[in-house]
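Because showing beats explaining, we let one protein speak, sequence and backbone structure tokens together, and leave readers to judge.
___
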Amino acid sequence: MIVRNWMQRNPTLVNGDTLLSEAKRILSEHNLQALPVVDDGRLRGVITRAHCLQAAHFVARTQSADEYSFFANRLKVKDIMVRNPATVIATDTMEDCLRQGQELGIAQFPVMDGGQVVGVISSREIFSLAAHFLGAWERRCGITLGPMELKPGTIGRIADLVEGAGAEVQAIYPIARGENGGDCAARHKKVIVRFHAAEVRKVVAVLEAAGFRVIESVEALPEEKTSH
């Protein structure tokens, strides 16, 4: 999964002299999380919705006409933007982007290509990626198996057992979760299985009979009925 295929393309850009009140309006009207700040064709910083809201809340708390006038007419993006922000490259993988975001505690990145800002990756794009992975619109059933050591053939055996119970496997995700939120090198991992099936309990019974520990199971949501 390459960043350029998931990023927000043709991002809205502002320059450092843009009024913060105008940046706040753009973020709100376009439902954006962040705006890259570009001067003379170069990325100078990032202004986020959180920055704008914090400044607006400060002004609201002071209840000062002078502070409000300064916020509305003089405070500029360059005054509070994050300078020299962390970036990702359009050819980076989403896995690298997620890893960097977790390590730095950042929820949005300008995407660069040839020194130019060509996109933005934010929490919205990450949420969309997760929704596609989990098949949020496909009404899948789900089972989570307790932590296990994944040896050669383990995933294949799980898939065979699930399909042998009459289900149609859609995806299998081994997931490790450690004290810091994730440890991909962990020896034992939970396994999430997403599938289509008429009876989840039958799949659960087959997996448990084979020695796997089922720690949770979820029925697919019923189809919504349309009124005529």
